Amino acid sequence: MSVPLFLVEALPAGESFTLGGAEGHHAATVQRLRVGEELLLADGKGGTAAASVTAVGRGTLELRVASFAYVDAPDPRLVVAQGIAKGDRGELAVQAMTEVGVDEIVPWAASRSVVQWRGERGGRAREKWAATAREAAKQARRPWLPVVAGAPDESTGRVVDRVAGAAAGFVLHEEATVGLSAVDLPSTGEIVLVVGPEGGVTPAEVAAFESAGARAVRLGPAVLRTSTAGVAALAVLSARLGRW
Fold first, then answer.
1. Which residue in 149, 167, 199, 211 has its CB near the most CB atoms, within 10 A?
2. Is the peptide bond before 76 cis (omega within 30 degrees of 0)?
């Protein structure tokens, strides 16, 4: 069984470390780690430290650090522009995409997005996606924490710009004639994958993305939900890029 992973702002500078705050509370009170048990600390930027518990306090753990490691950032980098969905479908998509290896998630206010993120509500919704990605990264034991893009309400124009600057861009569309498993992939740079909301991507949006260099692709004969389409596409890309 793999050891639990906890995220810290910075890795320990020496052999001793106190894990406190929310992570310490979770480790000591929720997971109830005990003296002698092992764990991983991660800074979310590729750095990890293997440690063991030497003492348990109230919401804190005293640790002895055994070793350090660093994992390079994946290349090509996988970015998903995820159409904002109603209910918990967006969070389900964020959770699953994080578990399978997405590097960045861009919340996209598509034309057919029923829910629109505006003002404080948009900020809270984005923070919820970021928190979901953080917890999923811990569960998956990922040394790199995926980024949830800054602006809470990314317009189609901004996503188009992101596609234009990428090494490759793909739009999932049920009417596409080419499968994602058959297209050429770059060996380096950024791959941007566009996933529509429940109502799908409009013809105008497809045209805008294609004008920026993206290609419309499909996964298969079935039409997937917005909460599962990105996950399936990332699995295809991960296998083809040798990540898996």
1. 149
2. yes
pLDDT digits (tens, 9 = 90+) for 106-163: 999 988 888 877 777 778 888 999 999 999 999 999 999 999 987 655 789 999 999 9
Q: H/E element holding 147?
A: strand 147-148
Q: Indicate the angle between helix axes 156-164 and 203-211, nearest 10 degrees.
A: 30
Structure tokens at 39: 């764990």
- pTM, two decimals, is 0.92
* CATH for the 5-70 domain, from 2.30.30.100, 2.40.240.20, 3.30.465.10, 3.40.190.10: 2.40.240.20
Segment 28-56, tens digit of pLDDT = 999 999 999 999 999 999 999 999 999 99
DSSP structural state of residue 183: S
Looking at residues 23-31, what average pLDDT do you find?
Answer: 93
CB neighbour class for 157 (10 Å; exposed up to 12, middle 13-18, buried from 19) = exposed
Nearest one of 132, 146, 138, 140 to 27, comparing CA atoms? 138
Strands 16-19 and 5-7: unpaired
Q: Which CATH superfamily is domain 77-240 in?
A: SPOUT methyltransferase, trefoil knot domain (3.40.1280.10)
What pairing do the DSSP bridges indicate for beta strands 61-70 and 16-19? antiparallel
Residues 6+ apart with CB under 8 A from 66: 50, 51, 52
